Amino acid sequence: MPVRGRLALARDGFRAYGLIAMMWVRSTMAYRTSFALTTLGSFLATGLDFVAVLLMFRHVDRLGGFSLGEVAFLYGVAGAALGIGDLAMGTMGKVGQRVRDGTLDTLLVRPAPVLAQLAADHFALRRLGRAGQGLGVLAYAVVQVDGVEWTALKVAMVPMMLVSGAAIFAALFTMGGAFQFLAQDAAEVQSAFTFGGNALLSYPPTVFAKDLVRGVTFVLPLAFVNWIPVMYVLGRPYPLDVPEWFAFLPPVVAVGFWVVAGLLWRAGVRTYRSTGS
Could you give the angle at which helices 68-89 and 128-144 cross, rounded to 10 degrees? Predict the structure, then answer.
C-alpha cells in the first residue's frame, strides 16, 4: 500500500476512534453521579498500591538506595503512563471474547478500521481515575525529591516520559489483543505485561536481579517507560552500563513498539476465521 494510502487509513482510524469514543463518553455522562463514583473508586483502588509504599517507608528510610520521593517519582510516571494507555486501548483485552462469540464479524463488515473500533468500544472514561492517581503521586514526588537540578531539559523530559510511556503501554495492549486471535482466551497474558509491567516499574531497578533488569532493558524494553529516563532526571546511575543518551530514547522505543504491534495486529486479523454465527 502506498504511503498516501496508509496515511488516509490512519486518518480514518483516528476519526472512527474519536467518533466511537465520544459516543461512549456522552453515554457515560448521562449518568454523571455514577461516573463520578466509579472514577473515584478507580482512583482510591489504585491508590492503595501507593499506600503500601508509604507503609513500607515507615519501617525503612530507603528502598534499594532510593528515598520515598524518588520511589514516588518512579511510581507516578509508570502509573500515569499506564493509566493513559489503559484509557486509550484498555478494551483490547476483550478481543478474545469477541473472537469466541463471533461478534467480531460485525466489526469487520463496517467501513472503519477494526483496531479503531475495538479500541474505542465501551470507552471507559472512569479509567481517568487510574491516570489521575498516577499524576497525583507524580506531583507529590516532584515536591518531595531533593537534590534534583530542574533544568529546562529535565522539566521537558517529564511530559516526554508520560507520552512515550503511555504509547508503549498502549502498544502492549494492542499486542495482547493480537495474541488473542491465536490464544482466544489469554487476557491474563496481556495483563501480565501491562499491569504486571507497571508493578515492576513502580520500584527501583536496584531491588531486582540484574538479569531481570537486562530483560526489561534489552529484550522487552519497558525500562524506557521510566527507569532509564528517571535515572537521568534524578542524576543517578542506571544499574546497567548504558550510555547517557539512552535516557532520550523513549519516543524512539515507543515508535518501535507500535511498528511491532501493527505488524502483529495485521497478522492476527489475517488468521481470524469466522465462527459462522
Answer: 160
Q: Which three cell numbers stand for residue 40?
A: 473515584
Q: What is the pLDDT of residue 74?
A: 96
Interval 173-191 mean pLDDT: 85
How many Cα atoms sit within 13 Å of 59 on the Cβ side?
Answer: 4
- Is pTM beyond 0.70? Reply is yes
- Is the dihedral angle over the CA atoms 72, 157, 220, 170 positive or is it negative? positive
Q: What angle do CA 226, 199, 243 make, to 5 degrees?
A: 25
Q: Locate cell 520515598: which residue?
A: 68
Greatest distance between any 2 Cα atoms in the chain: 63
With a pLDDT cut of 70, the percent of the chain lying above it is 98
The answer for residues whose C-beta is within 8 angstroms of residue 241's C-beta and 6 or more apart is none
Buried b (16+ CB within 10 A) or exposed e, 180-193: bbeeeebbebbeeb
